[in-house]
């Protein structure tokens, strides 16, 4: 009976103290720094993938040109993902995160290109949707031999939150 009373007293004490314990809250992440050029990193490669855009603003219906390059390790991952097709596509992000803190993206399937043998690429994209957005780079359609790679892999190469110095490629369509 004594042991039972000790447990009850312990639980009651914990219940009384619980309202006074302040949970640790992680600080909000800093918003990305808008830039005309960005590089993404991975553990082995400082410049895993880099991309820049030729303008800060483009009129609706106008064309913006995105150029960049991929490191050898990025090209190897892309080759496996696309089964040698080596296609990359632009992705678009809102300039504010979702309520859960994530950065959902939309792949712009009309803005894709094949990587050249030296790892460089150029994407000329016509923008009709007005607004300010961040842009990233994703691997093209997954055609990997190992289907698990498609289901569990991350096709993102350049995005929001994965770039050197928390920079994000921003373009405004007017």
Task: Explain how this protein is built.
The chain has a single domain (33-173), classed as Immunoglobulin-like. The strands form two sheets. Strands 1, 4, 6, 7, 9, 10 and 11 form a seven-stranded mixed β-sheet that branches. A four-stranded antiparallel β-sheet has the order 2-3-5-8. The longest helix has 16 residues, at 2-17. The protein is globular, with a radius of gyration of 23 Å. It contains three helices and eleven strands, in the order αβββββαββββαββ. By secondary structure, it is an alpha+beta fold. The termini are far apart.
Low-pLDDT stretches are 4-9, 11-28
Q: What gap, in angstroms, lies between the N and C termini? A: 76 Å
**Largest sheet entry:** 7 strands, mixed
Query: Given the C-alpha coordinates, what overall shape results?
Result: globular
| Strand and helix order | HEEEEEHEEEEHEE
What portion of residues belong to β-strands?
A: 35-45%
pLDDT averaged over residues: 82
Report helical residue fraction.
Answer: 10-25%
Count of separate structural domains = 1
What is the alpha-carbon Rg in Å? 23 Å
CATH hierarchy: architecture: Sandwich
The SS-based structural class is alpha+beta
Q: What is the CATH third-level topology name?
A: Immunoglobulin-like
CATH C-level class is Mainly Beta
Query: Tally the helices: what do you get?
Result: 3
How many beta-strand segments? 11
């Amino acid at each position: 009976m004594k042991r039972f009373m000790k447990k009850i007293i312990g639980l009651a004490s914990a219940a009384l103290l619980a309202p006074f314990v302040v949970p640790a809250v992680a600080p909000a992440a800093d918003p990305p720094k808008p830039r005309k050029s960005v590089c993404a990193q991975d553990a082995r490669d400082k410049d895993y993938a880099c991309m820049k855009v030729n303008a800060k603003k483009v009129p609706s219906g106008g064309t913006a040109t995105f150029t960049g390059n991929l490191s050898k390790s990025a090209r190897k991952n892309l080759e496996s993902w696309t089964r040698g097709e080596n296609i990359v596509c632009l992705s678009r992000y809102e300039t504010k995160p979702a309520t859960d803190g994530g950065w959902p993206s939309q792949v712009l399937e009309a803005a894709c290109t094949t990587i050249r043998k030296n790892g460089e690429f150029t994407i000329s994209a016509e923008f009709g949707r007005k607004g300010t957005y961040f842009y990233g780079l994703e691997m093209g359609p997954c055609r990997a031999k190992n289907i698990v790679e498609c289901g569990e892999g991350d096709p993102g190469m350049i995005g929001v939150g994965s770039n050197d110095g928390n920079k994000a490629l921003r373009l405004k369509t007017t």
